[in-house]
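S1.2 Input.
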Amino acid sequence: MLHPLWPYRPAKAQTPLARLRLRMRRLWAWLKQKRQRIVLMLLGYVLVWSIPLLLGEPLLTVFALLPLLLVPPVGLLIYRLVWKEFHA
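S1.3 Output.
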């Protein structure tokens, strides 16, 4: 169901175009959330740097994807070191 009050709208307002507009507004609101934006940016980054892999340059793709693999562990290491420094 699109919306709990959808059946109570006037019959003229229950057009396929209105239904499509409502779905597009919901999709746009969903995409504006922080988590979805991060996922879309990561997917875009991976897709852009997968092009050299398709063109036969796997080493370039590996170097481009290294930040995605190395940033989280380095961030965790920095967090732990700072935490130990202030709580030791």
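S1.4 Remarks. The CA atoms of residues 17 and 61 lie 43 Å apart.
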